[in-house]
Prior knowledge:
The complex is a heterodimer of chains A (about 190) and B (about 475).
Chain A: E1 6-9, E2 11-14, H1 21-24, H2 44-47, E3 70-73, H3 85-93, E4 97-100, H4 105-112, E5 117-120, H5 123-131, E6 139-142, E7 147-149, E8 156-157, H6 162-170, H7 174-178, H8 182-191
Parallel strand pairs in A: 2-3, 3-4, 4-5
Antiparallel strand pairs in A: 1-6, 6-7, 7-8
Chain B: H1 5-12, E1 14-16, E2 23-26, E3 29-32, H2 38-46, E4 57-60, H3 76-92, E5 95-97, H4 107-114, E6 122-125, E7 139-142, H5 145-154, E8 156-159, E9 163-170, H6 179-190, E10 198-203, H7 205-209, H8 212-220, E11 229-231, H9 236-242, H10 251-262, E12 274-279, E13 286-288, E14 296-298, H11 312-325, E15 340-343, H12 351-361, E16 371-374, H13 379-387, H14 390-397, E17 400-401, E18 422-425, E19 440-443, H15 446-455, H16 464-467
Parallel strand pairs in B: 3-4, 3-6, 4-5, 6-7, 9-10, 9-12, 10-11, 15-16, 15-18, 16-17, 18-19
Antiparallel strand pairs in B: 1-2, 2-8, 13-14
Amino acid sequence: MEPITLLTGKAAVLDRANVDTDQIIPKQFLKRIERSGFGQFLFYNWRFDETGREREDFELNRPEYEGASILIAGENFGCGSSREHAPWSLLDYGFKVVIAPSFADIFHQNCLKNGILPITLSHSDIQSLVRQTEIQNQVTVNLPEQTVIGESGRPAAFDIHPYWKEMLINGWDEISITLRYDSEIQAFEEASAI
Amino acid sequence: MGRSIIEKIWEAHQVVQEENKPDLLYIDLHYIHEVTSPQAFEGLRHNGRKVRRPDRTFATMDHNVPTYNRYFIQDEIARNQLDALAANCREFGIQLADLNSQDQGIVHVIGPELGLTKPGMTIVCGDSHTSTHGAFGALAFGIGTSEVEHVLATQTLWQTKPKTLKLEVRGSLGEGVTAKDVILYIISKYGVTFGTGHVIEYCGEVISAMSMEERMTVCNMSIEGGARAGLVSPDETTFSYLRGRKCVPAGSEFEAEVRRWQSFASDPDAEYDKKLVIDGSEIPPMVSWGTNPGMSSGVDAKIPVYEETASPEEEKALRGALEYMGLNEGLEIQSIPVQHVFIGSCTNSRLEDLRAAAGWVKGRKVKDGVRALVVPGSQNVKRLAEEEQLHEIFLEAGFEWRDSGCSMCLSMNPDVVPAGEHCASTSNRNFEGRQGTGARTHLVSPVMAAAAAVYGRFVDIRKEEYSRNAEKVSS
């Protein structure tokens, strides 16, 4: 997993509530057995029409959002299916940070496991962030400081569990950390006779 | 102060508790299927890791499998995924219910059916409807593929303790109202995020009176209300369901297990972070009309109108949903035309569901122009239904009778609803494109789906004109 510390990039705004993982990556693309290459299918049914042409009215197809690495989304982003193909497709498309007023629990967890930083900000902080990025569309995310800032104005602070912060900053493999607790796991199994 | 079942299970599974860390939680049982596991196994191989407890891991094939001519899989990518699961299970020594197994079926149907799911357990699966197993008083939740790999390697997960929500359903249900209507009503009333960050404990007279299969339907859709897990404290209904099942001990060992299981039930004075109470009598048969399960109403209602929405955001969501669904504001639910009917999925594909639908269908015919499928949740359900001749009732009426699988719940197999057409579906999600690109899903109970097949639209099955002639099919 790629470490995240400081990131400055373009933000794309997808102002829709309850975007489910079926929209982020439709089911016809879940049959592959690889982890890579899902970016081309991100938001497939919203991005492309029946003939495979880009839909002009879909937010992410706007030319000014090309190369965006930060997604600003609506409430309850990533609800529904637990498919990790959703963060895989966001990451492969180029998004490293998702900012939203709230996230669905499983999606939130899946982001953290893949080196995507999910940031929860209030509606008003998101609105002022969008206003602060109107000229160059530049957002800076500082994970060690736990702040997000636009081109101007004051930084907005966000919360993150210290465990996940450390994991993301270092890009650590969680399994190798857990395996250090092998004796505790074994003791638990013996004590519970399982 | 007493403890809730959620706290009891949590505390009994803490392996490591350290400051500034989530808890390391032991996982008793790990179900896997073909769609969310291949990358996890690849990760194990890449790092030279083993499956820590293959004996606590159980696999099935369900999402991709054809329900007709099931051994002839034309979709090469789907076949590769099924082959990969078989190869991974062989390599890592995991028991698999493949297409040749008489136990094959939807993971959330076969786990309980075989008696693998038991009270007091922690259970995970790379599938958000793992909440189903909560019906047994287990803490069961969906995980992503990275967590699947973590559980395979370590039999544990780092988890932050969730908040608790007690949801009491008092009184009793009216005629024609089922477990599916209860959970759709709850989600339509409280919204699709009321359970986020929480585990729901369902209780009250209505839940206590429910069979295990009905409780599974309720717990199954906890995730549609935002909760990763929903559960019911184990009771006599739970124990009598488990008695005699394939993977449940017998005799005195069973009695000892019952005593242990009972100890997990919530204490009467347990405290919760949030409490909600509804009355069973206020629940009508439900129909979803929008693009998330919260967008549902009673069958006797109308679709909301834009003017009466609470906020501009809500109006925007309503407009978007109705545009996708090809429906107008203020439309009577009963005038929505239905071209497809799907009775199946991990929500409603068990024997009682099929009995209820068949009981209503008997002596009636599927309306011309309607395509209706019955997809049993497992090969065992299929076999038991056939022993009761339920399949003959369905076939006689003009339904198709299929082999088990997830099928048209998410249409990863060839069972797809064409763009622009409406489907009355007993599944759990009415998201855009879920049953096929442009497909329009309406979530309903099995009886409501059966009635929609006969009338080609939704009808209020409580009315005498629709309930007359209905014959109960005895078990």
